Amino acid sequence: MLESIHSYLASILNSFSIVSFIDIVITSILIYHIISWIKGTQARQAVRGIVILLGAALASSLVGMVMLNYILTSLMTVGLVAVVVIFQPELRGVLNKLGSTMPLIAAIKDEKKTQYEKAVDEVSDALSELSTNSTGALIVIERDTKVGDIIESGVILDARINKNILLNLFYPGAPLHDEAVVISRDELRIKAAACVLPLTQNKNISVDIGTRHRAAIGMSENSDCVVFVASEETGTLSYAIDGRLSRFVDAMMINNVLQETFVPKDKKSRFMGIAKWLSGD
């Protein structure tokens, strides 16, 4: 018995090739899209019935119930035709979507936009809107130096990085709008809100620098975090790195700094190496 199983598995492994792998991947993607479509339509119950009939037909075939298997197989065939007729509008919509958008190609293209780039877009858009509305904000991006003590000083969230979440957190009057939000670059998560940051003790800083900006400088002095500030008074954007504050920067500069912040050094060097290899340098 064991020898037959071993030989069967060996034959499968020997016949497995790159084409088999591609076949499995494409089939999995197609099944995923079919299930996603079914979940959003009224066809779910009909498909569930067909699956039950299919299972019963297979079971009846295995135990030798010829008559029952014939009836179930006939019912299943009629059921498939009925699904096509009843859900013609939904099927037409799916076929139109396949022809116009090519979900498979769209999914492959979407993979080119990395999780880091999505995080950059979310934070950049949030800062831009906070600036436009003159809403005060303080966002800390945790990099290599972990700031667990700062996170624990606030309210733990562990939420995905999302523009609307950030806007709601800093909305005037919201329970957590004071102090800072901490985002983990490595985990790509909003770790906590209402976090208390240390103020800079640098005596050479201008007296017109407000508390938020002093907190940003202080945080960047004690860690490798990058801290972004939206001014409540003027709506201007600033950021602090290594104890240095850059003020009155535009949205493009903020986006560039965010890109440098979110992409880890090892990934950046690898990307640069690939780019140089492709360019022939």
Gross CATH architecture of the largest domain: 3-Layer(aba) Sandwich
Record field, number of beta strands:
7
Radius of gyration: 28 Å
Spell out the CATH superfamily of the largest domain.
DNA integrity scanning protein, DisA, N-terminal domain
SS strand fraction? 5-15%
Poorly predicted ranges = 267-281
- Strand ordering within the main sheet: 2-4-3-1-5-6-7
Features:
12 helices; 2 domains; 60% helix; 7-stranded mixed β-sheet; YojJ-like (1; 14% strand; 281 residues; alpha+beta; 7 strands
Can you put this structure into words, describing what you see?
Residues 267-281 have low confidence and may be disordered. With 281 residues, this protein is α+β, with helices and mostly antiparallel strands. It has two domains: 2-109, no CATH class; 115-264, YojJ-like (1. A hairpin with a 2-residue loop joins strand 6 and strand 7. It is built from twelve helices and seven strands. Helix 7 runs parallel beside helix 9. It has helices spanning 2-15, 18-39, 43-63, 66-86, 88-101, 103-111, 115-132, 148-152, 163-169, 211-221, 251-262, 265-279; strands at 137-142, 155-160, 180-184, 189-195, 226-230, 237-241, 244-249. The termini are far apart. 60% of the residues lie in helices and 14% in strands.
